[in-house]
Description:
Largest sheet: 2 strands, antiparallel
Number of helices: 7
Order of helices and strands: HHHHEHHEH
Radius of gyration: 22 Å
Structural class: mainly alpha
Strand content: under 5%
Oligomer: single chain
Amino acid sequence: MVGIQDAVFGALNAVFNPILSIDPNPTNPALTVLIIAFIVSLITTIANKYLVDQDELNEQQAKMNEFRSKLREAQKKGDGKEIAKLQAQQAEMMGDQTAMMTNQFKPMIVTFVPIILIFFWMRSSAIHNLVVILPSTVYWVTLTPLWHAIGSVVYGGKATIPYGIGWLLWYMICTFGMSQILRKFLGFKQGF
């Protein structure tokens, strides 16, 4: 087992250490995390693009939204017959929704293991010590004080660097932004 783990981390080191070495500040590799977030976002976005039928997903969501609005309208009017008719259709709609959710899990099955391995590599590399100092506006907009409060309850201690965040929150911010940009670029109809 240790041999497999060493081989996996050796491969990850071969891929990511060159990125880490070109970072202008290798002791605080914020740029490396940004690049890794881009790579992971690209992998997951491409997996979503090719493993999920986006047209079917959009069609199912539109159908579900239409059903919900009809049910709300019938409830507002107090139309018992229409409510009973819609509730009879609800089992079919739930089956469609289950199929839609299953369809959305396909990319996760493909990307889960590589992403977990990348996280373990990041945790065991120099990235683990990363502290990014955010501008005060970004610090408050990303609800960082809330995350610091949760972290202090879960892990103990307090955030000691004003406006500072660790590698995981920085990764999440970068991944969210990169994913939205890539989804727009690849023509996804959902998202921001």
